[in-house]
Design a protein that fits this description.
Layout: H1 2-13, E1 17-24, E2 33-40, E3 52-57, H2 60-66, E4 70-79, E5 93-97, H3 99-105, H4 112-124, H5 129-139, H6 143-158, E6 164-167
Parallel strand pairs: 3-4, 4-5
Antiparallel strand pairs: 1-2, 5-6
Helix pairs in contact: 1-4, 1-5, 3-4, 4-6, 5-6
């Protein structure tokens, strides 16, 4: 949910039209959750996403459940501890990374979603680094949490390491 709020805020900062529709599983905390987020230069007619340009999958179950909803030549970031060569049928680019480990190395396992958002923005140029930082400051008001998350964003943007990519 936080990742989507940050992306929506980035869009608002850049004067885009946005719809944000969260959907929770039976358990609010720790259970399945998804957000349909639409960002457009045009007015948005419906908050529902039929085919997504992007997917942030925080775990294998989310990846399996939503991968077929990604458009042809879409872009997926998959949080995984074990990189796989799982075949994807709809011709999308899949970037796999262990966002949990990256965040834990900074001392905040809860920052995995920030790693995912920063990776999406870095890989796609969806928004600028500056817009992402400004959005984070709007969405998160606790200065300690802001600082940790800003360090994660800087880590992602500074890295020259190639991420594992599956293009199927």
């Amino acid at each position: 949910m936080l990742a989507s709020k940050i992306l929506a805020t980035c869009a608002l900062i850049e004067n885009k039209s946005v719809t944000y529709l969260p959907s929770y599983g039976p358990e609010m905390r720790g259970g399945g959750a998804r957000v349909d987020l639409i960002i457009s230069d045009q007015k948005v007619g419906s908050p529902l996403v039929d085919r997504a340009d992007y997917l942030l999958a925080m775990n294998e179950n989310s990846f399996d459940l939503h991968i077929n909803k990604v458009k042809w030549q879409g872009f997926v970031i998959k949080n995984t501890q074990n990189q796989t060569d799982k075949e994807v049928s709809n011709k999308v680019k899949v970037v796999e990374l262990d966002a949990n480990k990256i965040a834990a190395n900074r001392g905040t396992i809860k920052g995995a979603n920030i790693v995912m958002v920063a990776t999406l923005i870095k890989q796609t140029n969806l928004f600028s680094f500056k817009t992402l930082v400004n959005a984070l400051k709007v969405v998160i008001d606790d200065s300690k949490i802001q600082y940790l998350n800003l360090k994660l964003i800087e880590d992602v943007f500074r890295t020259n390491k190639e991420l594992s990519c599956l293009t199927t």
